[in-house]
Each structure stands twice: as C-alpha cells, then as structure tokens.
What we know:
By secondary structure, the chain is α/β, with parallel strands linked by helices.
Amino acid sequence: MSKFLLIDYGASRIKSALYNDVNQLPAGLFESVGSFLKFGNSTKIESSFFSDSLILHLDYYSNKIKELNVDDNLKIYICSEMHGFSLIPNNSTIENFYYSWRFHHVNTNSALEVLDKNNFLKNTSMTLRAGLPVVNVLAEYLSNTLNENCSFLTLPQLICNDLGEQYNHVCKTLLHSSGFYSNLGETENSSLITGYDLSITFPKVLDDYSQPIGLVNYQNNEYNMYFGFGDLQAAFIGSDINDNQILINIGTGSQIISNSSNQSSFGLEERPFFNNQKLKCVTHIPAGRFLDSWCKFYNNLNKTNNFWTELSILNLNDFKNELIHIDFDSFLETKSSSFIKIDRLISENSGITNKNILASLVKSFADQYLGYLRNAVHEDVEIVLGGGVPSSIPVLEDLISEGLTREVKILKNNNDLTLKGLRAFLIKGF
C-alpha cells in the first residue's frame, strides 16, 4: 500500500498533507514559509529553497514514512504557484535560480511590444502582462544576454532536477501559464508566439497523469513525483463549485474563475482544465501581497494598531462615511511613495480615523472584483469566495453581495483549497 504526500508550493505558504488512504482523513498536516514571505519581491530565488522545503516536509513525516514496508511506496503529488520558471544551462552544475511572476526584467517593455504585435492573446488565450515567463525570457533574449542551449523548467521539474531526476514533461496547466504554449497548453509554440527561434528546450505535455514527472531521493530512497498542476486549477477543483457558480479565490494573489460553460461574461482569458474542459478567468488581481504591505504600514502608524483584528470587526455601517480612494497597484511595495502620501493625508486631516482608513482599504479591495463582475454575471449565477482572505475580512462578503445585488457565500474551511483539489483529483480520477 502506498502513502500519498500532497504538497502545494504557494507563494505565502508551502502546505502538505500525508495520507495513508486518500479516502480517509490525513495522517498528518504541515506547512512552511513560501517564497514570497521568505524573500519578498526578490529578483531571483535559489532553487535550493524549493528542494530544501520538500526535504523539510519529508523530515516532518519521516517517522510515518519509515513505517512503509519493503513493498510499499510514497507517492508525491504536487501543485505550485503559476507563471514562474527556471532556465538551466545544459551540462552545468552551478546553482540554479527560479524567477516568479513578481520578477520584471529591465527590458520588459520591449518584450511586451513584440508579443503584442505577434497577437499574444489570440495565440495563447492569456492576457499579456509583465512577469510572465515568456516576457522575462524574451526580454533577456532581446538584451542579448540569454544563455544559449538551456532548458526551461517549471517549479515541480526544478525540485526533481535538484533532488533526483526530472523527465521533461509536466501538466499543461503549468506549461500554458508560461506563455510559450498555444492550444491551451497542448502545443509548444515559442517561435510563433515570440517571433524568434529561441535556443531553449521546452518540456513536453504530460498526457497520462498516472505517470510520474520525475523522482526525488530522500534518505537513500527514490520517490516518484506526479501531476505538476497549476494552483489555480487545483483550487478550482478543491472549491467543488458547480457550473452556475463563480469562484473568487483570494490568497497571496487572487483570481475570478468559472467553468467555461458558465453563462457569465466576465472572463478576460481562458485557462486549461481537465476532461477537455476549460476555465474562463481574470488573474493577477492584487490581494494578500498588497494587504501585507498595508499591514506593515498601518501597524507602524500607532503601536496600538492591529491590522487584521480591526479588519475582522468592520461592518457595513463603517462604510457610510466619506472614504479615500486607494489605487491598489501603487501600494504593492512596503516602501511605496503612495504610503507617504497617505501618511501626509492623515496628518493633515484630523477627520480621518483609523476605522476610516481601513474601510477605505476594504472598499477599494472589493471594488476591484466588482469592476470585473458588474453587468457580467448571469442572473442565475452565485458568487463564492474562497482562499484565506475572505474569512479574515467577513465584511467583504457583504460588500460584494451589495455591489452585485445577489447572494454571496464564503466557503468554510477553505484555507487549503489546493490540497483539497489534489485529493479530489486522485479520488475522482478526472
């Protein structure tokens, strides 16, 4: 009998669950710090962080793993944050680095211009934006600094490469998010998409999810790794919503997602799913990363301030006063000059209270979702809030419900939607 380790490499947290049987309760749960909380908006992250994190989780479960009999095995199933990559020079043993969607190459604008002229949205069904792997790699190429003869690896492949062996194939959900694949991740099409013949070896699409994407060595044993799903798809499966519901998943980043059969018209792009289905969605909406910067700013205003506690007790009456408009994109960095402007505004206006500041923040936070959904949600469709943030800010449910004049509900016990999604995929088979 096999044991199953399900692990999600999220930006804020790396979460795992160990199962003796996926139809039963987990035998253990563990989490460690993710790349964003560990490194912030670092330009590059040593690959050893991700492989060391897997070892950390395996160490936590080591006693249970040792209980395996000779004929037993441990199978590792993984999903990860999307839009990240590593370029591994062939025949090189130097330390490798991982670049997340938070990294923006200095030559980004030139790459965006080229990709836009090449009809990126039409070719990929994905919105063109800074931070995508295709943008960062093309920017490197246009700067004449791209290493020749290298391999493109997703995060799950990078871990296998460091700890054992990767088999150069992975799930289309991650491959599509790189921007180098057309036909919703089914076809590597880098020449068409970029307009250049890049000297890069790209992964093949995994066509059988029962096959491993690589193996890792741990305590003189080899364990297979499977899936390599994108966390967007894993969270959507884990939410267990139906075709007449829309998921607003709010974590470190956030997305609005529904099955493509949903009659609503909010979707700006399409993403691959399973069983020949696809998802329509809006991605890269500022969320937890933005709130983390605001938490530091707000708590520094006064030593008695408690950002998350005070957010949790806001109610609709707190939004009746005049509020400050907050532009999310200008507050993503803790040292943003926009915080200086807010600080000055507070000092110059004695009528602005702490509660007024927090209400302004949450109202602007809700408005970014309402901006995509107003007049774009079918009358029979329900809105569902998932991820860790909605449970921490209960009034968010009321604001979105009021703004859309329809029922909105928060999923209970929803902090680990991605792990639930991995488990559901194993149980249902898809």
